Every structure is written in structure tokens, then in C-alpha cells.
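Bench notes, afternoon.
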Amino acid sequence: MALSEQEQRALYEIERSLMAEDPKFGRSVAREGNGGIGNFTLRGIAVVVIGLVMLVGGMALAQSNLMFVALSVVGFLVMFGGAVWMLRGGGGTATAKAPKKAKAKPAKSQGGFASKMEENFKRRFDN
């Protein structure tokens, strides 16, 4: 479900306030496009499929030679590693960039994040 223009502006204001308040945390949770947790890439999916093929192939060939069980174990590890890599955001092309700093404004109050949000809310409806 798409956000309305007003909701997008409010979200942008929250994001800017977060980046101003705690830049390190803001960069760690910032995302660009559809990046973030669960960013499934073609490379990650290919690694998981290769691991699955190794796992199934090793189990099927284990009847003829017991050494193919090792292939199944390696296949499982490859599959697991690919899934963890995708969930951690590996292989994605999107990188989180710090937003440009806004103009320096004199601080009206030193209340923190909540007071800044309240000031933004009041300023939005005063215009």
C-alpha cells in the first residue's frame, strides 16, 4: 500500500530528525530503495539453489558411494550460507548514503527528538 504525499513528507522529516539526532544509528538503519533486511538478490538465490542441488545430488548419489554424504553436508552449508548472506543484505547494489546536512538553524529548545518533532508538526500547520 503506497503512502500518501503527506505521510511520505512526515516519514522524511522523521528520517532527517533521526539522522540529525544520532547519525551512526541512522546510517545503520537507513535504506535506499528496497534495500534492507530480506533483500533477496539474484546472486543470493543462485547460491541457495546451488547448495540445494548439491544437497539433493549428494543424497541421491550416497547409495553408490558413501563419500557423497560429504557433498550433501557441503551443499547444506552453501545453502545456509547463501540464505544468511541474503538476509544480512549481502550482494545488494544499494548502499546507504548519509543525507546532506540541512541548513544550520538556531536551536529553539534542547528537548531532543520529541520536541523537534513537535516543533515540526506545529510549523507545518502554522503556514
